[in-house]
Design goal:
elongated, single chain, 1007 residues, 33 strands, six-stranded mixed beta sheet, alpha+beta
């Protein structure tokens, strides 16, 4: 192989002419002048473009400020409607319930502009004296309406939170403020929320410039449609006081580039807020309006020339960059000119080196491992190396003189001729082609054509590489890729791949559908800046960095909020895996995502509905407890006086009247107890007792109680207990008795002849303590279509207006719930005219020898051990003195009647504080303490008495709580307060005297 460079020295001599050298001398200066001119031209264009972009960004920030204000006002109105719902559910909301609600909404987290939340009652002028008296009795002893003075009507604050800060606001008539009266009146007439201009209430709330938000509240049973009906049904207003500065000052993003001015442009125009004073240099951006509680707020946005200059300042950087580049090109051109001659000298030395290494390159040509061909420029083969002969499976002589295009597949021969232009420009040509051997076989090859010189003429060096194996691999890879793309296209979840910089490298069809983009719009873009909300970008970028860094504890399953092309927010649940290269280095992530927006919305709605249902259930339970107390208090007097009258000499007719009165009271008491039990079960406050008891005494006691009722109708009640039934069991014997007595009571009521059988035996399935209880009667029976509904609340088999049997239909409903709580089931079999069999199965626990056995014969009161003075010590103080602490005159009269004939000296205190004062100044042997009283309740009075006993060194005096509250937690509250016993109203005389005698010696009545 002979490469001849030609007469290089003559070429250098010709290129060094004087004219050409002068042109090369001025070339660097020409480059410098052109570069500076272009930089200045582009700089002036950048200034204008930068300012336009800055104004666009500032207007976008203005729109965000308006959106934040609208969302904040919407949140304020939602708060008012939530509170309105509280009053619709219950028109009587206590101060404690108001405080619990205020604490539950977490105002310091969700409503940071809120200063105070109040309820304003509407009081006509004729009801002022009654209203003040009621508030003094129920809320605040010194409650008065301020400011005083006659008005047509009053709008008075009755509830306020935080009460510890704004207690002085109670009683304030906001209607005395003309602007607030006008706003409140408008809200009632329109039925819509209303927002005031900034007001100042210095004597009540220290904060200035308050915005007052009002929403009318109507009676729950009414749905007023006209202004007149709204005024007639009006209860008052839910009113929220908001700090004006806090509402507006936190709207901006904090960079200070946009100033906002807010004005009310209604009939009573008023300036509301300016983020900073406006000057002659202020530049107006845009103006918009916000509807806030029927108030038209105008928002005007401004910026300054200084801010525009700051935002568009990047043009100066571009100018500086252009100048630096111009000088760099000037220096480079100078270096090239100066170094040109040096390069020519180097070329001469290299030419001599080429001559010296010609033989060495010839050896390399022959020994290289890839096929190499030396071609004339027209394509004729001049020489080949041994590797070329091997790949074509022929001798060197066979290939010499052959045209290179003849070695290519006919369809690919044009490739060689297309390469001539590239080779003419002294560039390398690269291509893939099908090559044909002498035997006609074809193989794919990479062909590289490089220009060269051979004996002073243009030549070509061609190299071949057989790529048959690689093509097979590429084909399999392509097949796998196509298959993977098909899988991705039909996948039901989003598939997204990101590289280490968070750039989207792959997204499937489902991902494009959810995000409302095409794959061309997303691939190559940053996931964070394109898809995520602006306020989430920094947090999500940090999480992504932790994922690709494999930090310990980082979650690969997470939820992320994204923004679609139409600016809708979607919630995506991602499952991410790391993608690694062949060296196990992390090169990105692959994530599968599911759009859970609708599911999360449904879950949130379900959670809210559950909370509302739970709140309603709690409210119902509290209502029933309150009604129980209110009913038991007069019922105590009614039943008690009936007992007192029954002890007096009466005629037969009058005794029948008294017996009728006693039975009616007992029926009413049973109804109250059933409703309370059902309420506790439904609200989840019902708890079973777990204690060891004896089954046979329990069953015998039930039979003894119900035998009297059966005998009164001439019926026979029998009890059968299977011999294999164990006696010692662990469970709730009291609720077992309640279920059995409910079933026996129904059997007696609906049976007119024959008898009733109560039986207990081992259940067919289960262990030895799983028992089957049955109540069988020979009564009227139950129709088949009524067998299921008889266990529903307030339901009986005969629901007609002419039914023969009374009752509420609660007994079976409570029995089924009690059996279910004990882990059992209840069922019924019945034949009309022949009788019914009620059965239930309960699994008890076997009694452990270490467990205490409970005494199943309980009294109606609840007691606990107490260290008391002995009877002898009490008697030494003289006559037995009893203190009755009770505010109801009827109950005092009843207790006196019960204790009439007993040698007790009785004194009465009408409230807890008076009782404590009398106890401190006198000695009493026993105290009967009512729980609910004015000034000081019974629990507080009991604790105070126990403290006085400890301070004075007295031994504890028995204190018996007498209350209309009948829940188990009420009993526990009395015992925890220090009472020795808790008696539930209506009080039975026998129970009262038995309880008193338990702590005092029975008095000698012989005198």
């Amino acid at each position: 192989m002979n490469i001849n460079p030609g007469d290089t020295r003559n070429a250098v001599t010709l290129s060094a002419s004087t004219h050409k050298e002068k042109l090369l001398y001025w070339l660097p200066w020409l480059v410098l002048v052109v570069g500076i001119a272009c930089s200045v031209y582009l700089w002036r264009g950048d200034i204008h473009k930068g300012q336009q972009q800055a104004i666009h960004n500032l207007m976008k920030e203005s729109s965000l400020i308006q959106d934040r204000l609208s969302r904040r006002l919407s949140s304020m109105e939602s708060l008012l409607r939530t509170v309105q719902g509280v009053f619709v559910a219950s028109e009587q909301v206590t101060a404690e319930e108001w405080h619990r609600f205020f604490t539950a909404i977490q105002p310091e987290v969700h409503y940071k502009t809120l200063v105070a939340l109040t309820f304003v009652a509407y009081v006509p002028s004729g009801g002022v004296q009654w209203f003040e008296q009621a508030m003094q009795n129920e809320v605040e002893p010194h409650f008065t309406i301020t400011p005083p003075g006659p008005r047509t009507d009053y709008m008075v604050i009755t509830h306020v939170e935080p009460k510890s800060v704004y207690k002085t606001a109670m009683g304030l008539d906001i209607g005395s403020h003309s602007h607030l009266r006008e706003r409140a009146s408008w809200s009632v007439s329109s039925g819509r929320p209303s927002l005031s201009n900034p007001v100042i209430l210095p004597n009540v709330i220290k904060e200035k410039n308050l915005l007052v938000h009002l929403l009318p509240v109507y009676r729950s049973e009414s749905n007023p449609a006209t202004p007149t009906q709204r005024w007639e049904a009006l209860l008052g207003w839910v009113v929220a006081f908001h700090h004006k500065e806090t509402l507006f000052s936190s709207l901006s993003s904090g960079n200070g580039m946009v100033d906002v001015k807010v004005d009310h442009v209604g009939t009573d125009k008023e300036h509301l807020y300016s983020s900073s004073p406006l000057t002659d240099q202020s530049i107006s951006l845009q103006e918009s309006h916000v509807d806030a509680g029927a108030r038209d707020w105008r928002l005007r946005f401004f910026t300054s020339q200084e801010n525009l200059d700051i935002l568009s300042d990047s043009s100066h950087i571009n100018l500086l960059s252009g100048l630096v580049l111009s000088f760099a090109l000037w220096a480079l051109a100078g270096i090239l000119v100066v170094g040109r001659q040096r390069a020519l000298d180097i070329a001469l030395r290299m030419t001599r080196a080429l001559r010296e290494s010609e033989e060495r390159y010839r050896g390399i040509f022959q020994s290289v491992g890839e096929p190499v061909l030396l071609l004339q420029f027209n394509g004729t083969i001049l020489d080949v190396n041994p590797a070329c002969c091997a790949i074509f499976n022929c001798t060197r002589e066979t290939l010499l003189g052959t045209a290179m295009p003849d070695l290519l597949h006919p369809l690919h021969r044009s490739i060689y001729f297309n390469s001539q232009t590239i080779l003419e420009n002294q560039q390398t040509f690269f291509s893939e082609s099908l090559v044909r051997r002498q035997d006609g076989s074809i193989f794919p090859a990479e062909i590289r054509l490089s220009p060269a010189l051979h004996q002073g003429e243009k030549a070509i060096i061609a190299t071949l590489r057989d790529i048959t194996a690689r093509k097979l691999v590429d084909e399999r890879v392509m097949q796998e890729k196509n298959r993977a793309e098909q899988y991705l296209a039909i996948a039901g979840t989003m598939i997204v791949a990101l590289n280490n910089q968070g750039i989207i490298t792959l997204i499937n069809r489902k991902g494009c559908e959810v995000l409302e983009y095409s794959d061309d719009d997303l691939v190559g873009k940053s996931w964070f800046s394109t898809i995520l909300p602006p306020d989430h970008i920094s947090q999500q970028e940090e999480q992504f960095r932790r994922i690709i860094s494999e930090e310990p504890g980082v979650l690969l399953d997470y939820e992320q909020q994204v923004v679609t092309q139409s600016q809708r927010l979607r919630l995506i649940a991602w499952r991410t895996t790391l993608v690694r290269d062949e060296n196990e280095r992390i090169i990105g992530t692959l994530s599968s995502g599911e759009d859970i927006t609708q599911r999360r919305q449904a879950e949130d709605a379900l959670k809210q509905a559950k909370q509302l249902a739970e709140q309603a259930n709690v409210a119902k339970s509290e209502f029933l407890a309150t009604m129980s107390h209110e009913i038991r208090t007069p019922l105590n007097a009614i039943m008690g006086m009936a007992d007192v009258i029954s002890e007096a000499p009466l005629s037969d007719e009058h005794r029948r009247y008294v017996n009728l009165l006693q039975r009616a009271g007992e029926n009413l008491l049973d109804l109250i107890n059933d409703i309370l039990d059902l309420s506790k079960i439904e609200s989840g406050r019902f708890e079973l007792e777990h204690a060891t008891f004896y089954l046979r005494p329990t069953m015998n006691r039930v039979r003894e109680i119900m035998t009297h009722h059966a005998a009164a109708k001439g019926l026979l009640l029998t009890l059968e207990i299977h011999p294999q039934v164990p006696d010692g069991l662990h469970g709730d014997s009291r609720r077992l008795r309640q279920v059995l007595m409910n079933l026996l009571g129904n059997a007696i009521k609906f049976t007119h002849h024959g008898g009733i059988r109560l039986s207990v035996s081992p259940a067919p399935e289960g262990n030895s303590t799983t028992l089957l209880f049955q109540v069988a009667d020979t009564g009227i029976g139950i129709p088949r279509d009524k067998l299921e509904i008889i266990f529903d609340m307030f339901t009986q088999a005969d629901s007609s207006t002419t039914r023969r049997y009374g009752g509420t239909g609660l007994g079976l409903a409570i029995s089924r719930r009690l059996v279910a709580m004990m882990g059992g089931t209840i069922s019924v079999e019945s034949t009309p005219g022949k009788g019914s069999i009620f059965s239930f199965v309960v699994a008890f626990h076997p009694a452990s020898p270490s467990q205490d056995k409970t005494n199943d014969s309980r009294l109606s009161d609840h007691t606990r051990p107490q260290s008391l003075a002995s009877a002898e010590e009490i008697i030494r103080h003289g006559p037995l003195r009893l203190l009755i602490v009770e505010d109801a005159e009827d109950n005092v009269a009843l207790l006196r009647a019960y204790l009439k004939g007993q040698p007790y000296e009785i004194q009465v205190a009408t409230n807890g504080q008076e009782g404590v004062d009398m106890f401190q100044s006198q000695y009493f042997h026993l105290v009967l303490m009512d729980v609910q009283m004015p000034i000081m309740d019974g629990h507080t009075a009991t604790r105070t008495i126990r403290t006085l006993e400890s301070q004075l060194g007295r031994k504890p005096v028995p204190i018996i709580a007498v209350s209309a509250y009948a829940f188990d937690e009420d009993v526990r509250s009395s015992l925890e307060a220090g009472c020795n016993a808790h008696i539930t109203k209506p009080v039975n005389k026998t129970s009262l005297l038995t309880t008193i005698h338990r702590y005092l010696p029975a008095p000698d009545t012989s005198s």
